[in-house]
Amino acid sequence: MSKESVMIKNLYDLNETIAKDLFEGKEYPWELLPLIKDFIIKLGNTLDMNDYDKIGEDIWVAKSAKVAPSASLNGPCIIGKEAEVRQCAFIRGNAIVGEGAVVGNSTELKNVILFNKVQVPHYNYVGDSILGYKAHMGAGSITSNVKSDKKLVVVHGQDFAIETGMKKFGAMLGDNVEVGCNSVLNPGTVVGRNSNIYPLSCVRGVVPEKSIFKNLQNIVRKIEK
Asked: Do residues 150 and 109 touch, judged by C-beta distance below 8 A?
C-alpha cells in the first residue's frame, strides 16, 4: 500500500459532487477541510435560483429536496437536488449534501462534503469528513474527529505515515464504502473505494480499496465475482 491509495484521484469520482472545483489542484482530500466554508458561500451565490431557494443566511436548499420541519439547518450549507433531510437532523454548518443524499433522523453534520447518493440515515455523527459517491453509514456509526490526547492527526498506512497538521479530521470514505452499524471511525481514517466495514468495528488508519474490515488484525481482500 502506497500514499497513492489515499489520494483524491483514487478515492472519488469528482463528477458526483457539486464541489468538484474545490478538489482541483489538491492531492489529499483532507486538504479541503479548512476550505469548505468559504467554498460553500462562493458557490451558493452562483446557484440557479430556478433550482434552489435561499432560506437563510448562506443556506441554499434545492427546490426538489425534502427537508423535514423539525430539521435544523445552519449555514453555510447547500442541500442538493432530490436530497432528503429527515426528522430532527442537525446540520451545524459548513456542509454540502449531495444530490439524492439522505441525512437521517437525529444525524448531525459539521464541516463535511457528502457526494451524491450518500446515505447517513440513522443516528450518525459526521464531522470534518468527506464521504464519496454512494457511501453508506449504518445506524449509529460515527466519525470521531478529535484525538483523545488532542494531538494533530496522522494518517497511518501500512508502509507510510502522513502528517496532516490538523487537530480536527474525521474520516475520508471512498466511493461505495459500506460502514456497518455502530462502528467508530477514528480520527484520520481513510477507507478505499468499494470496501466494507463490519458492524461494531473500531477503525483507524487506512483500509485498502475492495477490502472487508473485520478488525484491525483481519482486513481481507474482496473476492471478485
From this structure: no
The number of domains in the chain is 1
The count of other CB atoms within 10 Å of the CB of residue 190 is 28
The answer to whether 7 and 27 have CB atoms below 8 angstroms apart is yes
* Cα(184)–Cα(62) distance, integer angstroms: 31
Gyration radius from the chain CA atoms: 16
CA within 13 Å, CB half, 220: 6
pTM: 0.96
Distance linking the first and last C-alpha atoms of the chain: 23
- Which residue range is the domain that position 80 belongs to? 3-221
Q: How many residues does the chain have?
A: 225
How far is it, in rounded angstroms, from Cα 199 to Cα 137? 10
β-bridge mates for residue 18, sequence order: none
User: Are 37 and 20 in contact, with CB atoms under 8 Å apart?
Assistant: no
13-35 residue pLDDT tens: 999 999 999 999 999 999 999 99
Closest CA to 84 of 138, 126, 122, 129: 122
At 77-110, the pLDDT tens digits run 999 999 999 999 999 999 999 999 999 999 999 9
* CATH code where residue 125 lies: 2.160.10.10
- SS3 category, 3: helix
